[in-house]
């Protein structure tokens, strides 16, 4: 008698969205559910800090929407991958004014910000950055509280590393946004 081990069926983004919330932090990677580490309290602090700074600027200038808290972003189809960026900015050109769309939004954000936790490996971060850029995200910022640096990635430029005395700007995406990097970590 032969025993066959069945691989679990790969999920689509839509099937993943319908799963009941069991309290675990997960992402869908290549159609499979992957459990994420629980972030520490400091992660939440830096997330709120960045959300306030970026969100206030975007709202005051009527530029678009800022989403956070691991809002789902489909980065690949067939098999599907749904990542949960810490923070993302969508201009009104990508997601027009009006009612907020249900489900996963039909466009990628222009900007994704990830906050590196102490358990995050750079190898895994680079994989996510590549997924975001391949999904038409224009800029990915990785904020690293441990080193007090911000790493900026885009498809057309080499990585830029900003230190505490540098200024975080996004001139092509958010003209006028300017925050000293040290202020992110206060």
Written overview of the protein:
With 186 residues, the chain is of the alpha+beta class. It has a single domain (13-184), classed as Alpha-Beta Complex (tt1808, chain A). 23% of the residues lie in helices and 32% in strands. It has helices spanning 13-18, 41-60, 122-134, 181-184; strands spanning 26-29, 32-35, 64-68, 73-76, 81-83, 87-91, 111-115, 139-144, 149-154, 157-162, 167-170, 174-180. The strands form 4 sheets. Strands 3-6-7-8-9-10 form a 6-stranded mixed sheet, with helices on both faces. A two-stranded antiparallel sheet has the order 1-2. β8 (139-144) and β9 (149-154) form a beta hairpin. The longest helix is centred in the first third of the chain and has 20 residues, at 41-60. It is globular, with a radius of gyration of 17 Å. The chain starts with 12 loop residues before the first helix and ends with a helix. The relative contact order is 0.14. The mean pLDDT is 93.
Short description:
By secondary structure, the chain is α+β, with helices and mostly antiparallel strands. It is 23% helix and 32% strand.
Please outline the helices and strands.
Layout: H1 13-18, E1 26-29, E2 32-35, H2 41-60, E3 64-68, E4 73-76, E5 81-83, E6 87-91, E7 111-115, H3 122-134, E8 139-144, E9 149-154, E10 157-162, E11 167-170, E12 174-180, H4 181-184
Parallel strand pairs: 7-8
Antiparallel strand pairs: 1-2, 3-6, 4-5, 6-7, 8-9, 9-10, 11-12
Residue stretches low in confidence (pLDDT < 50, at least 5 long) are none
The total beta strand count reads 12
Q: Please indicate the percent range of residues in DSSP E strands (runs of 2 or more).
A: 25-35%
Instruction: Indicate the CATH architecture.
Output: Alpha-Beta Complex
List the quaternary state of the chains.
single chain
Helix and strand composition category: alpha+beta
Q: How many distinct folded domains?
A: 1
Estimated radius of gyration:
17 Å
How far is the N terminus from the C terminus?
65 Å
């Amino acid at each position: 008698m032969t025993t066959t081990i069945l691989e679990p069926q790969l999920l689509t983004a839509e099937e993943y969205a319908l799963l009941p919330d069991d309290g675990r932090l997960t992402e869908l990677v290549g159609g499979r559910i992957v459990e994420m580490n629980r972030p520490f309290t400091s992660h939440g602090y830096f997330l709120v800090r960045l959300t306030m700074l970026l969100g206030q600027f975007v709202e005051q200038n009527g530029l678009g929407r800022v989403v956070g808290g691991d809002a789902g972003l489909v980065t690949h189809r067939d098999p599907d991958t749904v990542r949960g960026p810490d923070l993302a900015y969508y201009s009104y050109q990508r997601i027009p004014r009006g009612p907020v769309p249900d489900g996963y939004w039909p466009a990628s954000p222009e900007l994704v910000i990830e906050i590196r936790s102490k358990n995050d490996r750079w190898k895994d971060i680079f994989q996510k950055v590549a997924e975001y850029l391949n999904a038409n995200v224009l800029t990915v910022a990785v904020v690293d509280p441990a080193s007090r640096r911000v790493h900026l990635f885009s498809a057309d430029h080499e990585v830029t590393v900003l230190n505490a005395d540098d200024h975080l700007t996004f001139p092509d995406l958010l003209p006028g946004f300017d925050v000293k990097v040290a202020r992110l970590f206060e």
